[in-house]
Write a structure and sequence with these properties.
The complex is a heterotrimer of chains A (236), B (398) and C (309). By secondary structure, chain A is mostly helical. Chain A has 10 helices and no strands. Helices cover 79% and strands 0% of the residues of chain A. In chain C, α8 (168-185) links the parallel β7 (156-160) and β8. The two termini of chain C are 33 Å apart. The chains are: A mainly alpha (236), B mainly alpha (398), C alpha/beta (309).
Chain lengths: 236, 398, 309
């Protein structure tokens, strides 16, 4: 917990300091004329990045969990092969390709990124939730039915709590994936921490690339750290 | 002894008592949706020229178009019906592929008709309904394959063959993607080869690092923890950020030792791309190698030791042959990932099919994006299918 | 209490339960005995509607269960299974409180009930209340499972091979505990097992199932008397049939009036099997039986034992 807070503080401080570190960027990249990234500001980029990835993860979590619950009910068994097929198809198409393909339909901006984000983040949640729900021991379910619990109650009080650790692991994967995919979304015009990277690459400004890359990677590591913490507390 | 008609009925396939496989419902729904998608969303659109955005176009009602669409309808229906029996799932996959080819042929022929009375600059492209139908049919084939417990190779082979035939017959030449493709044929081939080069060298590099490290980690717990920690840590870093982070140090390295530039090393270009891709392959490779090497139960290893086998002998005679399947599984995941990751290499000047994709994004040109994405998807399906076939061959064993 | 009327359950071509008619009297322990796949569990699971019959009907207290709401029905019937099925994420007290909570009891009443039940099944409440299932031994977990089934004081208990996975010592301990609880509470118990000795140790009434069909039923002694043939003979084991028969008869049934001085003493309610074991272990051809209400005491002779029919 303390390590996470320290990391967060350091991250914030670095974001505040980055625009004032002109001499440092000058020293690192002497050939670049404007090495300091100044607009839009880091915090506004961070805000949009988080809004996109957290929002998408939330939608994806609801979709993925819903699909998993449906697929593990007796009535939803027919859904199982479809989910498997979607999963294996999605593995052959990387997120950047999905963003590119939806670009002509949805136009520049956050929309294609959001679509790809939701699609790709929902898959790990669904996978893990199906796995977790499948792993609930049959005798426990038998006993729950035998004691007269209704199916909604069994789901809420027995199945979901028992599957929770696995579902959480899936959520972690989903969020890390969402943060990475959001960064790629800069290519399609989504404003986020990936924007300095893409702009820097397009304008031959490695200083901007480095700054954007540092903050993007840092954010992903913080998110992972935070989710690990949440996980550890639950299983401990 | 059962009466004659009863015995006969039991032998007739359609009245048999075997329930339809659990995929039947999903496949039927997907096939019906595949029929509906073109009706609702349209299959063909027409743009006055390369730059203006396309508008939906009515399908011309010529015999060729009607035959093709009829075949599409029939094969969709066939897919749904064939999937009702587990033994016919392979044929259902084939029917889905044929439906797809029929639709493709339909819009190819229709494009020719529509463009005949249009200006030479006009372009015909498949509309959303076509892409949707394609996606749905691919998913239906995937469901069938899941029912047979494998990859949809019937579907893929049939689609590739059908596509090749239609292309050779010149039926597709009027579609704007095809025009773009024939205009840029050499460019696409070069990009695809570059793409394979990038992902292949990254895979080799990752193999060269992870194989010896996994073997060492098998015996040293601390090394294993460190290795998996590093591999997991890299997985968290977004690839686009990692490429960015690699640019600086490699650039500095080259300015310090300019001779390296001749070797292709630099902040921009294939070197950081290969390095960046390889880093992400460490996790699937190392975890599969370690899991594969541990497939043999400790009791068996003990017994082998008791019979006087050396560590090297145990490795060669037990661990590697028995764990090969698991290890190949890791290789399969890594290969597919490498091909996907190589797309981003274009951003840092690494070349590959990503170049076409990002060019297409820049010009908002759907055809260019497709010419980048389609070969890339084909490559990754090919890699996946190849590894799967290898795995299957291995499981059947000598 | 329970009546099965021509009950069948088919899975495709296969009949798991085939036209079974059986009556379980109130307050008795009825054991369903059979090999695995004989349909005994399926038959039992039709009582609380975990399985629906394909034909026939099941009556509990004269009412067809098909007309009852399944969840309400199950809350009124205790249910214990082999792998215990304790909810791994709930503490012992919460597990026992499952049905009372479903029935909306007050917390104070539930807490008191949990204490009583833990004591009834022989577990120290203060020690076990707050444990998680993974902190229990197999026998302890099964005692908790029994307590959970008894929680809402249901008149009827269904037990599906509850002790099968336990080691022999623990199993005998639990069998004794179950008989005691039965004597104390007077519940009707339907008990499924494949273990002949367990069946004979517990049963007031025995029903033997083979390939879905009821092949024999009645009091254990009557069932084993001479008539044992076909599947019953096989299930009880040809060579140990005589031995099992001894387990169904009380020792006093062969008692003679005589001088019991200095002879090894049997417990009053011992069976002939226990008498035989004592003779073998004490190297004595005669045993003493204590006097009890309606029985004047006496001796048991080896010769009577081996010629008994």
């Amino acid at each position: 917990m303390r390590a996470l807070l320290a990391n967060l503080l350091l991250f914030g401080a670095a974001m505040v300091a980055a625009p004032y570190l002109g001499p440092l960027w000058h020293a690192l990249f002497p050939e670049v004329s404007r090495p300091v990234w100044d607009s839009p500001g880091w915090f506004s980029l961070l805000g949009e990045h988080l809004m996109l990835s957290l929002g998408a993860t939330l939608i994806a979590a609801i979709l993925g969990l819903g699909a998993a619950i449906l697929a593990t009910r007796p009535a939803g068994r027919a859904l199982r092969p479809l989910l498997d097929a979607v999963f294996s198809l999605a593995q052959a198409v990387p997120p950047v390709a999905a963003i590119a393909l939806s670009l002509p339909l949805l136009g520049f901006g956050a929309a294609p990124t959001l679509l790809a984000l939701v699609l790709y983040a929902a898959l790990p949640v669904m996978r893990s939730a199906v796995g977790g729900l499948d792993a609930v021991p049959a005798p426990v379910l038998d006993a729950a039915r035998g004691t007269g619990m209704g199916s909604a109650r069994i789901l809420a009080q027995v199945e979901l709590p028992l599957a929770l650790p696995v579902i959480q692991a899936g959520l972690r994967v989903a969020l890390v994936l969402a943060i990475a995919t959001t960064a790629v979304g800069a290519v399609a015009g989504a404003r986020c921490l990936g924007t300095p990277i893409v702009t820097g690459l397009a304008n031959g400004n490695p200083s901007w690339v480095l700054q954007g890359a540092i903050f993007t990677a840092w954010l992903a590591l913080i998110a992972d750290q935070a989710l690990r913490l949440g996980l550890g507390r639950h299983s401990g | 002894m059962p009466s004659q008609p009863a015995a006969l009925a039991a032998r007739l396939p359609l009245t048999g008592t075997a329930p339809p496989p659990r995929e039947a419902m999903a496949v039927a729904t997907l096939s019906v949706l595949a029929v509906l998608a073109p009706l609702v969303l349209g299959v063909l659109s027409l743009a006055p020229n390369r730059l203006l955005s396309p508008r939906a176009a009515a399908m011309p009602q010529t015999a060729g178009v009607i035959i093709c669409l009829g075949l599409f309808l029939g094969f969709c229906l066939g897919t749904a019906l064939l999937a009702r029996r587990a033994a016919w799932l392979g044929w259902a996959e084939l029917a889905a592929a044929l439906a797809l080819c029929a639709l493709l042929a339909g819009i190819g022929v229709a494009a020719g008709e529509v463009l005949r009375d249009a200006s030479p600059a006009a372009r015909a492209t498949p509309a959303a309904g076509f892409w949707m139908a394609m996606l749905l049919l691919a998913l239906a084939a995937g469901c069938c394959a899941a029912g047979r417990g494998g990859t949809p190779r019937n579907f893929m082979v049939a689609v590739v063959l059908g596509f090749g035939l239609l292309w050779a017959a010149g039926l597709l030449g009027n579609l704007s993607v095809a025009r773009e493709a024939s205009a840029r044929g050499a460019e696409i081939r070069a990009a695809a080869i570059q793409h394979l080069g990038l992902s292949g060298s990254a895979l080799l590099l990752a193999l060269a690092v992870s194989l010896p490290l996994s073997l060492l980690a098998l015996r040293h717990r601390k090394l294993e923890a460190a290795l998996m920690g590093v591999a997991n840590g890299f997985q968290v870093v977004p690839s686009i950020a990692l490429f960015g982070l690699l640019m600086g140090p490699l650039g500095a390295l080259v300015s310090w030792a300019p001779g390296l530039r001749d070797w292709g090393v630099g902040g921009i270009g294939p070197a950081p791309a290969v390095l960046g891709i390889a880093v992400y392959l460490l996790l699937p490779l190392c975890s599969a190698f370690l899991a594969g090497l541990r497939v043999v139960p400790p009791a068996l290893i003990d017994a082998a030791r008791g019979q006087g086998l050396t560590e090297a002998g145990i490795l060669r005679r037990l661990r590697i042959p028995l764990g090969l399947g698991v290890m190949l599984g890791g290789l399969r995941v890594a290969a597919v990932q490498a091909i996907g990751l190589a797309t981003l290499a274009a951003l840092i000047g690494g070349g590959g099919l990503g170049t076409l994709v990002f060019q297409g994004i820049g010009q908002l040109a759907t055809d260019l994006i497709l010419l980048g994405v389609l070969p890339m998807v084909a490559l990754s399906l090919l890699a996946d299918g190849g590894c799967a076939a290898l795995q299957a061959a291995l499981e059947r064993g000598p | 209490m329970i009546r099965f009327e021509g009950v069948s359950r088919r899975y495709g071509e296969q009949a798991a339960v085939d036209r079974v008619t059986l009556e379980v009297p109130r307050g008795s322990i009825c054991v369903l005995l059979g090999e695995s796949g004989s349909g005994k569990s399926t038959l039992m699971r039709m009582v609380n509607r975990l399985v629906e019959p394909s034909a026939g009907r099941v009556l509990v207290d004269g009412r067809d269960v098909a007309g009852a709401d399944p969840e309400e029905l199950r809350r009124g019937i205790g249910y214990v299974i082999q792998s215990v099925g304790l909810f791994p994420h709930w503490r012992v007290a919460d597990n026992i409180a499952t049905v009372p909570r479903l029935l909306g009891w007050e917390p104070a009443r539930i807490a008191a009930r949990v204490e009583t039940l833990l004591e009834l099944v022989g577990l120290e409440a203060t020690l076990f209340r707050d444990r998680f299932p993974h902190e229990l031994s197999g026998g302890q977990a099964q005692r908790v499972g029994l307590a959970r089934a008894l929680a809402a004081d249901p008149p009827l208990l269904l037990m599906d091979e509850p002790f099968s996975a336990l080691d022999p010592g623990t199993r005998r301990g639990l069998q004794v505990a179950l008989r005691e609880i039965h004597a104390e509470t007077g519940k009707t118990i339907l008990f499924v097992t494949h273990d002949v000795e367990e069946a004979l140790a517990l049963a007031d009434r025995l029903a033997v199932l083979d390939q879905g069909q009821l092949v024999a039923q009645g009091r254990p002694a009557a069932l084993l008397e001479g008539a044992a043939q076909g599947p019953v003979r096989r299930i009880f084991g040809e060579e140990s049939l005589a031995f099992h028969r001894l387990a169904t008869l009380p020792a006093r049934s062969l008692a003679r009036v005589g001088d019991a001085d200095g002879l090894p003493m049997l417990p009053a309610d011992a069976t002939l099997k226990q008498a035989l074991m004592l003779m073998l272990s004490e190297n004595s051809a005669r045993l003493a039986l204590p006097a009890e209400a309606g029985f004047g005491g006496g001796t048991l002779h080896w010769t009577d034992l081996v010629t008994a029919r």
